[in-house]
Amino acid sequence: MSELVLINVSGRDKPGLTSEITGIMGQYDVRILDIGQAVIHDHLTWGILAEIPDQANASPVIRDLLFRLHSLDLQVRFAPITRDEYQQWAEGRNRACYIVTLLARDIRAEHIARVSAVTAQHGLNIDNISRLSARPSLDASENRIACVEFSVRGTPGDLESLRSDFLRIAGELNVDIAFQEDSIFRRNRRLVVFDMDSTLIEAEVIDELAAEAGVGEQVAAITERAMRGELDFSESFAERLALLKGLDEAVLERIAERLRLTEGAEYLIRSLKALGYRTAILSGGFSYFAHHLQNRLGIDYVHANELEIEGGQVTGRVAGTIVDGQRKAELLGELADREGLSPEQVIAVGDGANDLPMLSQAGLGVAFRAKPLVKESARHSISTLGLDAILYLIGYRERS
């Protein structure tokens, strides 16, 4: 009968080690049941679960490996595995797999401890931990983004309770934590749709228009209540828009030129385009400003409200159907169909209550720097970092 042996190797990394080790085992027709390797600061940790056939006793394999690895100044440990142990382990690998993404300006030991404690409390076992972001400079005063990804396996009893625990500790530690199933769609998403105001840009355009019209405080108060979900979006939108009646059309260009992109927006869009993603703005704001962003960033699609202008002045109305929360969700579905995608292959990003319908419909819905109601209702949120943190939720790995 064949023998199962777990082989662990550690020491300073050198080119060609995997070839050396497996070459020796290949001489004895060893079957590889599992293999893994990690290198941290040029230090190798390498493991392999081998099935040594009955016609080749394990001793010669172990002898040859010991001799060669010792000559390479590497440490090695052999552990016999019973067939029952292997079978139980292999069956456990069929349990659901999830990805926990920890995002912060800098990763601290406490962050890892708290995240791993929550996974353990909910019956999840950590299979693998990887740093996705570039290694930090010791001289930098602040890191742009630090990201560690945990691959975990198991069957949590209460997913909502698990997400709630992650949301709670994220707030306590001032970090972002995302939890998602490691499904076939995670690295196969191809369309990202964005809200515009307070998502791609740092301002609410209607508030900027109101300031120019001299009704800034009135409109800002209504905007704030609408984004918190306290007011119906369409009604509040019409109420705010009416206050802009008579505003000179020339103001629009001035506002468009001074709009500031949200942290990470330009890098995110550039990276998504390089990766072959399509992008869209689905906004309850105004198409004039959305098209300005489209030209600046290279966005593929724009759907927003058409600000009605007559005689060089804003009328206080929009032309056509208001793009509210429900319309955003409909547009997401229409764009997915147009691109030949399922909703699971779409990422949606927004900050307001009117974004919740499209966030819930997308395969990955991200509440970005959102109000508490939106943050709690969405499956994922980013509150402490820029928009480019979204790249790590799709498994992007930054090289350094």
Automatic annotation (TrEMBL):
Domain ACT: 6-84
One of the record's GO molecular function terms: L-phosphoserine phosphatase activity
One GO cellular component, as annotated: cytoplasm
One BP term from GO: L-serine biosynthetic process
Entry-linked InterPro entries: ACT-like_dom_sf, ACT_dom, HAD-like_SerB, HAD-like_sf, HAD_sf, PSP, PSP_ACT
Broadest EC class assigned to this enzyme: hydrolase
Record family assignment: Belongs to the HAD-like hydrolase superfamily. SerB family.
EC numbers, comma separated: 3.1.3.3
Amino-acid biosynthesis is among the record's keywords: yes
Known pathway: Amino-acid biosynthesis; L-serine biosynthesis; L-serine from 3-phospho-D-glycerate: step 3/3
Pfam families to which the protein is assigned, alphabetical: ACT_6, ACT_PSP_2, HAD
Tagged with keyword Ion transport: no
Active-site residues per Swiss-Prot or TrEMBL entry: D195 (nucleophile), D197 (proton donor)
Designated name of the protein: Phosphoserine phosphatase
Keywords, alphabetical: Amino-acid biosynthesis, Hydrolase, Magnesium, Metal-binding, Serine biosynthesis
Cofactors demanded by this protein: Mg(2+)
Catalytic activity: O-phospho-D-serine + H2O = D-serine + phosphate; O-phospho-L-serine + H2O = L-serine + phosphate
